[in-house]
């Protein structure tokens, strides 16, 4: 009887430890090829106290089927500025990456992205956490 009980407990433990997250997924190209509008930005001063803050901006990013990403803002830095448009490329795979074409940083860098709950999150390279949150505006 103890063995059956331990087997059942062990089975529940294994089932509860699966890594599947229903709200976060690896996007397919069909999920991504769209236009997205910046709605929030996250930054952390380095002590873990950061949070997403709503922004008022017209900054958008558009993903195209030829692996090109375009923005009416600067893809090289996190921000709401829309005076300098920029382009880059993106890849979908084990790590989803965006590589801007116009950055002056050496060596060239890339950012990662995910889609969670139908929201696009772009993670910039920062010492602290730096994330832009976008909502879908055109499919």
How would you sum up this structure, described in words?
By secondary structure, the protein is mainly beta. Helix content is 14%, strand content 38%. The chain contains 2 helices and 10 strands. It has helices at 2-16, 29-32; strands at residues 24-25, 35-43, 51-54, 60-63, 68-71, 86-91, 97-100, 111-116, 119-123, 130-138. It has an 8-stranded antiparallel barrel. β4 and β5 (68-71) form a beta hairpin. 18% of the residues are buried.
What is the topological layout?
Layout: H1 2-16, E1 24-25, H2 29-32, E2 35-43, E3 51-54, E4 60-63, E5 68-71, E6 86-91, E7 97-100, E8 111-116, E9 119-123, E10 130-138
Antiparallel strand pairs: 1-8, 2-3, 2-4, 2-10, 4-5, 5-6, 6-7, 7-8, 8-9, 9-10
Tell the overall outline: globular
> What does the average pLDDT come to?
80
Number of helices: 2
How many β-strand stretches? 10
Side-by-side strand order of the widest sheet: 2-4-5-6-7-8-9-10
In whole angstroms, how far apart are the ends? 57 Å
Structural class: mainly beta
Beta-strand residue percentage:
35-45%
How would you sum up the major sheet? 8 strands, antiparallel, barrel
Instruction: Write the H/E string, N to C.
Output: HEHEEEEEEEEE
What percent of residues adopt helix (DSSP H or I)? 10-25%
């Amino acid at each position: 009887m103890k063995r059956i009980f331990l087997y059942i407990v062990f089975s529940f433990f294994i089932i509860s430890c699966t890594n599947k997250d229903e709200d976060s997924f690896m996007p397919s190209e069909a999920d991504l090829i769209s236009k997205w509008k910046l709605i929030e930005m996250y930054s952390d001063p380095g002590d873990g106290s950061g949070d997403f803050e709503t922004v008022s901006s017209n900054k958008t990013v558009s993903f195209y089927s030829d692996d090109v990403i375009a923005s009416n803002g600067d893809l090289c830095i996190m921000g709401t500025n829309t005076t300098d448009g920029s382009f880059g490329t993106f890849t979908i795979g084990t790590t989803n990456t965006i590589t801007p074409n116009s950055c002056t940083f050496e060596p060239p860098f890339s950012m990662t992205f995910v889609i969670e709950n139908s929201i696009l999150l772009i993670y910039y390279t920062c010492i602290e956490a730096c994330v832009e949150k976008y909502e879908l505006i055109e499919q």
